[in-house]
């Protein structure tokens, strides 16, 4: 019954930020990594940048040159390190890039990935520029880096301008229009100066420092819940293994026994004896009863109901101590909530029962205090789980102006009930305290997200138009690469709609074989037959075109309009250069609910953790030019399917498809 208390992904970023590069001491210790920054206004940002791994430092790098202009290559290298040190988690909903996914790009000599003649693969800047270029392509479409540095040459040693830096930094703002990148970045306060000013190294360090602070706050799309795991949002618990008391090296026997028991639980070495020790301490006058009962609630041999009772006894002990420790109460409430989630998955009425028990403590705290907020957040979350949305909304709205989680929950559940105007009015009413940078940031992100939600119908209509245009084109050639449960595919598909036929050729590699296999197939839309060459038997086999083996194949037959209205699909549109980029998410709960009646070759769906598409549309022609996807599906037979890939569409290729008679004849024999 291990707890699943939510931990922040940003913890990974925080960890990386606190790592000190070997070879120098931090500013906190009275030393500086460089000998030329002691009196510079950006000294603190430079030091934090070194600690974050953004800048090299050590005995061989004595100077930072804060007033020197930063080159394009240096800025891209800094941006690359920032992305790899945690920035990837912030923009994952828009990239759905797995870690190091871009490392395989740019290796081929036949089709160099970078468009510049002066970025040689033997230079130090090749790799970071390649990775940032790939990231920009993923976010904004093919050749996106050319919108920042146009031409055949990038001039990597040339000083970067403030405007160029802003276009690159804007990838973390989820801005909807790249033409407004400068205004967006300036509004966030990341850059100062004028567009055409050259960016100094000290200024770049300050911009990175401000961006890091931004990344440690909220997600760029705060109302997006693509995996149905985010809401109701509860506070992030950073330390779930506290001692709940201070102990010296000289411990009493009981203190040592408690200390050893906690260590055993933390290190997953706990057993029956561990909890026997804690029960014995719980029956004595041992002063730390909060800790005793908290850790007794972790007993894996005990029923959930017993764990829950221990969790409530820990809260009783907290109030018996008559000390005001909001963080402690928050953790204890989180513990109760976590156990209720595990119980409620099989017995939903538990949420109401737990909510009633937890509500009894409200009379013990002062309304509006931090303790009251901690209790109320979890009471409201239990209301949500018990499907009492209006009660939860009333609680959230009562202190949304002071509490980040209350605000975002209130706005989210208003939008889920199509009360967008109310949500916007609520956000507009929030006047953050000038030192509450997180609330200021959250309010701005919520406004941006709500503006997008207002445009859902229009965005879906634009996407549906481009998809219909592609599907009605007389001929289309599709070139793509994909990965399906470990199988690698590279293919070209010729679609001839006049003849109602298509041909796919290419190769694939099995995870169980070191060699490539031929891939070839034909589709006859008139006969509704699909012909595939089986490389194992070296024969052609046939099947029905309307057979759906996978969930994603079935979802692809659902119209965009229906996905929006009935499947709770979410769409986000960004404009960058020549492309409109539309990202589509269908939440896990909708996928699992809608698929219950689907007849799939793989069987019934048990879980559908991820369904994300990105569509890249040429702004002038409205043609779909690229499609990227990532799907994850788990079937009741325990088969896990992960499918991701990229397709490029060419409407000018000469395509003529005729299914060879020998293929039909061989299948017919």
Number of continuous helical runs: 24
- Total strand segments: 11
What Rg, in angstroms, do the CA atoms define? Answer: 29 Å
User: Roughly what percent helix?
Assistant: 40-55%
Largest sheet: 11 strands, antiparallel
Low-confidence stretches: 1-29, 106-110
Mean pLDDT: 91
Structural class: alpha+beta
Shape: globular
Provide the number of structural domains: 3
Give the termini distance in whole angstroms. 58 Å
Q: Spatial order of the strands in the main sheet?
A: 6-5-4-3-2-1-11-10-9-8-7
Name the beta content range: 15-25%
Structure commentary:
The protein is of the alpha+beta class. The chain has three domains: 10-215, no CATH class; 253-454, Serine Threonine Protein Phosphatase 5, Tetratricopeptide repeat (Alpha Horseshoe); 461-663, Lipoprotein localisation LolA/LolB/LppX (outer membrane lipoprotein receptor (LolB), chain A). Helices cover 41% and strands 15% of the residues. It has 24 helices and eleven strands. The protein has helices spanning 10-17, 43-51, 72-90, 92-95, 126-140, 162-169, 181-188, 201-215, 253-266, 272-282, 289-296, 304-321, 326-344, 350-359, 370-385, 389-398, 404-416, 420-429, 437-454, 456-472, 551-555, 560-566, 588-594, 661-668; strands spanning 475-484, 487-496, 501-509, 516-524, 529-534, 539-544, 570-576, 579-585, 605-618, 624-635, 640-650. Strands 6-5-4-3-2-1-11-10-9-8-7 form an eleven-stranded antiparallel sheet. Helix 1 packs across helix 3 and helix 13 runs antiparallel to helix 14. It is globular and about 90 Å long.
């Amino acid at each position: 019954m291990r707890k699943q208390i939510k931990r922040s992904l940003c913890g990974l970023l925080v960890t990386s930020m606190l790592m000190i590069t070997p070879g120098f001491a931090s500013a906190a210790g009275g030393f500086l990594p460089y000998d030329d920054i002691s009196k510079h206004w950006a000294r603190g940002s430079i030091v934090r940048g070194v600690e974050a791994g953004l800048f090299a430092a050590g005995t061989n790098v004595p100077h930072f040159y804060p007033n020197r202009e930063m080159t394009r290559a240096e800025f891209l290298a800094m941006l690359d390190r920032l992305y790899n040190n945690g920035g990837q988690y912030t923009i994952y909903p828009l990239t759905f890039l797995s870690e190091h996914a871009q490392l395989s790009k740019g290796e081929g000599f036949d089709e160099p990935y970078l468009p510049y003649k002066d970025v040689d693969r033997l230079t130090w800047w090749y790799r970071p520029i390649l990775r940032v270029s790939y990231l920009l392509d993923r976010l904004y479409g093919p050749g996106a880096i050319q919108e920042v540095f146009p031409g055949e040459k990038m001039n990597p040693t040339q000083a970067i301008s403030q405007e160029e830096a802003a276009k690159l930094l804007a990838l973390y703002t989820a801005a909807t229009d790249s033409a407004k990148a400068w205004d967006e970045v300036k509004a966030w306060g990341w850059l100062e100066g004028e567009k055409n000013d050259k960016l100094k190294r000290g200024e770049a360090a300050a911009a990175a420092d401000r961006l890091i602070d931004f990344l440690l706050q909220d997600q760029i799309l705060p109302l997006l819940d693509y995996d149905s795991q985010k809401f109701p949002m509860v506070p992030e618990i950073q330390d779930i293994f506290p001692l709940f008391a201070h102990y010296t090296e000289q411990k009493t026997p009981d203190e040592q026994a408690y200390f050893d028991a906690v260590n055993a639980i933390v290190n997953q070495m706990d057993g029956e004896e561990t909890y026997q020790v804690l029960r014995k301490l719980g029956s004595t006058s041992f002063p730390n009863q909060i800790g005793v009962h908290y850790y007794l609630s972790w007993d894996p041999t005990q029923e959930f109901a017993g764990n829950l009772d221990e969790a409530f006894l820990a809260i009783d002990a907290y109030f018996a101590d008559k000390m005001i420790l909001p963080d402690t109460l928050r953790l204890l409430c989180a513990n109760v909530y976590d156990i209720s989630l595990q119980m409620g998955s099989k017995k939903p009425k538990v949420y109401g029962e737990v909510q009633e028990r937890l509500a009894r403590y409200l009379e013990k705290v002062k309304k509006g205090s931090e303790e009251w907020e901690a209790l109320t957040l979890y009471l409201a979350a239990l209301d949500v789980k018990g499907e009492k949305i209006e009660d939860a909304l009333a609680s959230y709205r009562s202190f949304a102006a002071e509490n980040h989680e209350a605000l975002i929950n209130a706005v989210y559940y208003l939008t889920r009930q199509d009360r967008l105007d109310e949500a916007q009015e609520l956000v507009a009413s929030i006047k953050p305290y000038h030192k509450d940078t997180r609330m200021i940031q959250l309010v701005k992100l919520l406004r941006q997200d709500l503006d997008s939600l207002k445009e859902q119908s229009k965005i879906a209509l634009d996407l549906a138009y481009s998809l219909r245009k592609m599907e009605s084109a007389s001929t289309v050639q599709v070139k793509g690469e994909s990965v399906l449960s470990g199988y690698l595919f590279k293919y070209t598909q010729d679609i001839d709609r006049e003849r109602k036929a298509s041909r796919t050729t290419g190769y694939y590699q099995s995870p169980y074989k070191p060699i490539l296999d031929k891939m070839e197939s034909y589709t006859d839309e008139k006969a509704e037959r699909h012909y595939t060459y089986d490389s194992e038997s070296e024969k052609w086999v046939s099947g029905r075109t309307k057979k759906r083996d996978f969930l994603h194949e079935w979802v692809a037959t659902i119209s965009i309009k229906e996905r929006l209205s009935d499947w709770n699909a979410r769409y986000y549109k960004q404009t960058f250069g020549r492309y409109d980029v539309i990202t589509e998410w269908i939440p896990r709960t909708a996928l699992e609910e809608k698929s219950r009646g689907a007849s799939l070759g793989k069987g019934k769906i048990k879980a559908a953790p991820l369904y994300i598409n990105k569509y890249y549309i040429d702004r002038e022609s409205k043609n779909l030019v690229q499609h990227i996807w990532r799907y994850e599906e788990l079937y009741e037979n325990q088969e896990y399917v992960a499918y991701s890939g990229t397709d490029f569409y060419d409407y000018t290729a000469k395509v003529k498809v005729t299914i060879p008679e020998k293929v039909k004849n061989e299948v017919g024999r």
